[in-house]
Amino acid sequence: MNKYYKKTLNLLEPLKQPAMAIGFAFIVGAIVMLFTGANPIEVYGIMFKGAFSSQFYLSATFAKATPIILTGLGASVAWRANCFAIGGEGQMIFGALTAALIAIYLPGPLWIRIIISMIGGVAVGGGMSLFSAYLFDKLQMSLSISTLMMNYSSKFLAMGLVVMFFLDTTSTGGMLKQTKQIPEGMRFPRVNADYALTIGFFIAVIIVLLVWFLLNKTKYGYESKMTGYNPEFSRFGGINAKRIMYLSLFISGVLSAFAGVSEVYGTYFRYVSGSLVSGGTAWIGLNAALISAYNPIGVLISSIILASIQTGGTAISRFTDVPLEISQILQGCITLFISAKIIIKWRRKKKLIKVVEEGGN
Amino acid sequence: MIMAMVIDIEFIAHILNSTFRLMTPILFVALGSALCNRVFIFNIGLEGMMLTGAFFAIVANYYTHSVIISLLAAMFSAGLVAWVAGIFMVKFKGAMLVVGISVNILMLGATTFLMQIIFGVKGAFVDTSLVSIPKVNVEFLRNVPFFYTLLGSLTYLDYFAVVLAVILYYYMFRTVSGFRLRSIGFNKEAANSIGINADRIQIGAITFSGILSGLGGALLSMGAVTMFIQNITSGRGFMAMAAGALGSAHPIGVVFASTFFGLAQTLSNIFDTQIISSEFMKAIPYLATIVALGIFNYTKIKRGGRINNI
User: Fold this and answer.
1) pLDDT for the residue numbered B147
2) Nearest CA-CA partner of B307 in A146, A152, A296
3) pLDDT beyond 60 at A353
4) Cα-Cα-Cα-Cα dihedral of B274, B277, B283, B287, to 10°?
5) B278 falls in which pLDDT band (50, 70, 90)?
6) How far apart are the CA of A32 and the nearest CA of chain B, in angstroms?
7) pLDDT tens digits for range B103-139
8) Would the CB atoms of B116 and A325 count as touching at under 8 Å?
9) Across the interface, do B107 and A332 touch by the CB < 8 Å criterion?
10) Do A142 and B105 touch (CB under 8 A)?
11) Distance (Å, rounded) from C-alpha B210 to C-alpha B45?
12) Count of structural domains, chain A
């Protein structure tokens, strides 16, 4: 009995920190709401209802979670190998644009176009990520700076490409900077015609499992984990750290780019300039990765939680005077509190040493 | 027609003037970033701190119509955010990148949130009662068109940015306190062992970088234009970090690096309005950052130097 109790406790251990951080963040959020004159309990109630209360809202939350899961996985793969890249946004943008353009303009049977467009999209994202790896490897350029700059340049370059060459002038008279729509037969089918949820979410869940397998059951996964823990040690252990870095960043870029592809196939059915940036999807994905300590299953759960904060936030802004940005405040607070986890880990380690010492005596 | 404009000497003065005006907000933040680098802090939250300063400058401006109070509000608010970030980074040993990113997301949300609560608008806030930072009067140069354009519409704060770089240079390299500060960047443990309170100095440096970011932000929202736009910084804080790295975290080097970014932005503006009206040009400053850092690092590595990067 005691053994099972301990086992479940061990299983719940990784949840302690995220749960505390989310709790703290909601307290901060409540204080913010009090200042605006709203009743936090009521607002959180609306938020919960707006995220989970009906099939409609639930499917909206899952649809919103899809790109967050994918960018979260992308960030996890890179960050756990000590590659602190934050280029998810740029990779998403060019992944989406490439996939959309191939889907629209490539002739041939639909299924071939789907395959080529998806491969093209993720290849571009992976390539961008590899470029930042190259800059770090050969020119010692900080990954965070190079990827950040690529995010901003991608945003404007993609916008420029759409405006100059691929603008759809028929639907809104060119008011919205967007491409034409991809053919109907190529889109992700919806689970229920009335709801936003497509098979994209389930593809994302399958990818979660694949990434879990990759990180936990393969040589690459072990090596990247070791590199993340201690680069020096792993080098002595015969791990080719450079190979791990290139590989991790490539996989990370592919996953983030697929987030963009899934948005094209499942949400917008075209590339809409700015749509992938305005929601801050890639940043929320990074948050999901941080909350879950780079565990793929954890990314899935925390992405759904973060997406529910988003859909719930939309409900708040519709039914109360509290602005939508409360969700950004909550998200920022969660990661801020998550970041302080090292101190708790350190305390636990101390306790562990004590236990070992006592056991020895 | 374009050629005639390019060789026009007044056009050159215009470019230099615009470069200087676009350089100074970055310079303030980049100096803060350089200071952080010197104490081994990678402060990616400067973007959010700059945004904080830009916003609270306008808030104070709206209620008091005083430039001094607005600037103080910008410095205080951004400094406060930086202080909290510093506590999380140094005392709670939070990963610097994570704390910084959190600050950015949090302040982007908070400023937009407060803009709707305080001003009741979304997107942008502008009001005729807002005052801007006073410009240095150059009427006496009216007869010399080149200098009149070159030095026109510059605020006192623009000049102060360069003065501050010199002061920081003197502080870092000519004072005992500056030496202590730099010693932390070399080896925090060793600095601690000779009785330097490294934690306190690191938090102090982060706070000071926040104060400078606040000034940079205020220059954005109260300088050339007097308004607050959602996410008005749009990556300038990140660019300033790049400038800090490009200038080797040396105040005078940072001035040159920031000038480069000012020029890149100017060129993107000029091309945008005169030759190709396109979004492509807006990508120039960010692409230029990658190219410039690449060339800089390449030459440094060739000479056998080491680059401190996180």
Assistant:
1) 84
2) A146
3) no
4) -50
5) low
6) 10
7) 999 999 999 999 998 998 888 999 989 999 988 888 8
8) yes
9) yes
10) no
11) 9
12) 1
At which residue do the structure tokens 């993720």 appear? A122
H or E stretch at B229 = strand B228-229
> Which alpha helices (DSSP H) does chain B contain, by range?
2-7, 9-38, 46-64, 67-86, 96-114, 145-150, 156-174, 176-186, 188-193, 198-222, 236-246, 251-274, 284-302
| CA–CA dist B245, B305 (Å, integer) | 14
Read off φ and ψ for residue A272, nearest 5 degrees.
Answer: -110, 120
Residue from B52, B121, B290 whose CB has the most chain A CBs within 10 Å, to mutate: B290
Q: What's the rounded Cα separation, in Å, for the pair B171 and B201?
A: 14
Find where tokens 């920081």 sit: B168
Instruction: Give yes or no for A336 touching B (CB within 8 A).
Output: yes
| Nearest-angstrom CA–CA distance, A39 and B143 | 64
A167: three-class secondary structure by DSSP: coil
Element (H, E) at A137: helix A110-139
One-letter amino acid of A114 = I
Phi-psi label, residue A183: left if phi above 0, alpha if psi -120 to 50, beta otherwise? beta
Instruction: Tell me the C-alpha to C-alpha distance, in Å, between residue A332 and each of A243, B78, B108, B207.
Output: 33, 16, 9, 19
Give me the residues of A, 302-331, that contact B with CB < 8 A. 323, 325-329, 331
- Cα-based torsion angle of the residue sequence A161, B14, B296, B186 in order, rounded to the nearest 10 degrees: -120
Q: Could you tell me the pTM of the whole model?
A: 0.88
Residues from chain A contacting residue B99 (CB–CB below 8 Å): 336, 339
Quick one: tokens of A253? 């870029």
Angle between the N-to-C axes of helices B9-38 and B46-64, in degrees from 0 to 180, rounded to the nearest 10: 110
The pair of three-digit structure tokens given for residue B31, joined into one six-digit string: 């100096």
- Sign of dihedral through CA atoms A103, A104, A108, A111? positive
Token pair, residue A16, equals 């302690």
Contacts of A328 in chain B (CB under 8 A): 105-106, 108-110, 112-113
In chain B, residues with a C-beta closer than 8 Å to the C-beta of A290 are 98
Provide the 3-class DSSP secondary structure of residue B124.
Answer: strand
Whether the CB-CB separation of B94 and B161 falls below 8 Å is answered with: no
User: Among all chains, which residue has been given the structure tokens 């467009």?
Assistant: A117
Task: List, in order, residues 6 or more apart from A283 with CB less than 8 Å away.
Answer: A88, A89, B101, B105
Q: What is the number of residues in chain A?
A: 361
**What per-residue confidence (pLDDT) applies to B7?**
60
**Under a CB-based contact definition with an 8 Å cutoff, are residues A328 and B116 in contact?**
no
Q: For the domain that residue A254 is a member of, what is the CATH number?
A: 1.10.3470.10
Q: Is A65 on the interface with B (CB under 8 A)?
A: no
In total, chain B counts a number of residues equal to: 310
